[in-house]
Amino acid sequence: MPQLARGAWLVLLASLLAAVPSARALAQATPASAVHYLETPPGQKPRVVITADPELDDSNSLIRYLLYSADFDTVGLIYASSQFHWKGDGKGTEGYVPGREYRRFGLKLCPCTSWRWDPEERFIDAAVDAYAQAYPNLRVHDPDYPSPEKLRSVIRWGNVDFDGEMSHDTPGSDLIKSLLLDDNESPVYLHAWGGQSTIARALKSIEEQYKGTPEWPAIRAKVIGKAVIHPSGDQDDTHARYIEPYWPEIRYREQTGSIGLSYNAQANVSEEDAAYFTPEWTEANVSSRGPLGALYRVWGDGKQMVQGDRFDYFGIGGKSAEELRQEGYVVWSPIQAQGSFLGEGDTPTFLNLIDNGLRGYRGDSFGGWGGYAAPERPPSFSAGFAALEATAGGQGPGPRPRPATHPFLAPAQRDLAARFAWGTTPIYSDANHAPLVAIEGATTRVARAGETVRLKVKASDPDHDAMTVSWRRWDETDSYTGPVPLDRSDGLQISLRVPADAQPGQTIHLIAEATDNGLPALTRYERVVVRVGE
Known about the structure:
Elements: H1 6-19, H2 23-27, E1 47-52, H3 56-67, E2 73-79, H4 123-141, H5 148-152, E3 155-157, H6 171-181, E4 188-192, H7 197-210, H8 216-226, E5 227-231, H9 238-246, E6 251-252, E7 255-256, H10 271-274, H11 279-287, H12 290-295, H13 321-326, H14 348-351, E8 372-373, H15 381-390, H16 409-422, E9 436-439, E10 444-447, E11 452-460, E12 467-473, E13 493-497, E14 507-516, E15 523-532
Parallel strand pairs: 1-2, 1-4, 2-3, 4-5, 5-6, 10-15
Antiparallel strand pairs: 7-8, 9-11, 11-13, 12-14, 14-15
Helix pairs in contact: 3-4, 6-7, 7-8, 7-9
């Protein structure tokens, strides 16, 4: 058994005991009939809470998020901890959880009073400060961008003391609690880019206040109906230890098939898609684009999230993995070209909330840029991190077949480039803006096997650019698995015949894509679901 300071044992033991599921707790699950799962009302923006730890890819994801903040109602920006970053309690208490990175790679670096946390940490505030400089230009291109003051008003500190600590309320957990208990009849999308301890603490505080009271059944059903967790893995085990056992009915949306934006993305996408991660593309479209671009981390940028962090060698350019190891760094991700894309591993959690026409976050949708609902839970974050470690022995992985080009990666990256351009362009006509595309009629159609379905969209462009409209089937999300020939793949209208062997209840998913010829070329979507009728 690893040695642990007495104070740390008390913190860890209290946290574990608070989260151990009892038979009674599991038996008190709320019946599905008592829960009304809320959806964002038409015409309203999704209410979003971001919880993030100070990992550099969280910082990058936050910059992209702010560039899309016109699409959201941001109700919380919360500092969080994880197994990779925690602040400590400031009292000299030492913390340690077995199996974490400070005990891997042959290291024995903890118990310690904090882990990879800058005493002056303010990366969320810094991102909003940079946003404030871009805000006057951004509003020219979309008046719905929230003011910097509005964003600053929802910044809070969550449960950051230790890995998975959820023993006490914090301003961040109090904010989440208040949102889950308010009378707003729309869901709250709770994004966990680090650990989920602040979200878990909010739920635990609600349980402690109401459990055993006459109001508890209604309160519990209300919270279940309102909370939607968008996790970037279970980075501190609080979901496994508390949220899932005690609140199993809460919507927990892990997606598969997202565009690849993690560390080492260059090696995990097609050669065509990898063009959007090169130093040349990143410099032209991101790094050179004002204060937000300057804040965005890239390979070899000379920066470090925490001074002396042995795991953050990303700012060092021109050195091999072996040279970095000789300097004491733990090389856990392959070296990439200086100036190239570094990582935005948490971005897929909010991509489906973007107003791009796919409506990927709604219950009747089937996904979007952020992927689609996974048929089963993907591996834990730790498992994915371990897999990444295995590729980090040299400058990069050896030769291997490239995956197919992702249909959404290039459009998403071009769209990001346009948002960065908005932040540095004070005249509307000097930047490009996305086209609009909409189906004529319902987005869900019912047709029997053998029937012909005719679909037509209308499209327009705010800049009066020329457009192309193309159609494709999203095979991965269909429940009908056979071929479905379309009479054509482009144009404003198409038709398809529902296959004769299609069974009632099966679905065929189609996407219309309108792309303009501006710089960068931008794409918007309409999606249609054909359901096979009796």
